[in-house]
Amino acid sequence: MPSMDAPQPIADRPRYPDEMADVAAELDGIFRRTPMYAVLGIALVDWGLGWSVLELRPSPSMGNLAGSLHGGATFAVADAAFEVACNSYGRAAVALETTAHYHRPAPLDAPVTAEAWEISRGHRTATYRLQVRDGDEVLTSYLALAYRTSRWHLPAERFPDGWG
């Protein structure tokens, strides 16, 4: 089980089984076509079952009054990571609640990375930890709760019984 404070190394994180590679590839396309990514300059770096890594390359227009990255932009990339992680099993999931803790200002002149990882998952809700980092330094951290709907992003019969 992943820690609340730090994700597992990427090499140890769960992935789709080889026999479901086509499903994972289709979901990858769905995730990467999220319209907001292009608007804000967000890139999906990697993802798997219950986790994701995204990157934001800030522009000067994303600055706040203090000259650092606006908290709304930081939240946008964290929320995008949350969206991929909680939808990674193929079931449509939406945010119910998120709490944010801003530890340090995020720079405007360098990319930031957002990671989301699953802490727990039940039939209808799942909890995720989110972090936005500048290298190894945690800039913001979040705890997020997702509602897992009964809808699927792809036909339900493409997933094994009891999946996700």
Structure, described:
The protein has 164 residues and is α+β, with helices and mostly antiparallel strands. The protein has helices spanning 21-32, 35-40, 71-87; strands at residues 42-48, 51-56, 91-102, 112-121, 125-134, 137-152. Strands 1-2-4-5-6-3 form a 6-stranded antiparallel sheet. It is globular and about 50 Å long. The model has no long low-confidence stretch (mean pLDDT 95).
Q: How do the strands line up in the largest sheet?
A: 1-2-4-5-6-3
Q: Mean of residue pLDDT?
A: 95
Assign an overall shape.
globular
Pattern of helices and strands: HHEEHEEEE
Nutshell version of this structure?
21% of the residues lie in helices and 37% in strands. It is of the alpha+beta class. A six-stranded antiparallel β-sheet has the order 1-2-4-5-6-3.
Relevant terms:
164 residues; alpha+beta; six-stranded antiparallel β-sheet; 3 helices; 37% strand; globular
SSE layout:
Elements: H1 21-32, H2 35-40, E1 42-48, E2 51-56, H3 71-87, E3 91-102, E4 112-121, E5 125-134, E6 137-152
Antiparallel strand pairs: 1-2, 2-4, 3-6, 4-5, 5-6
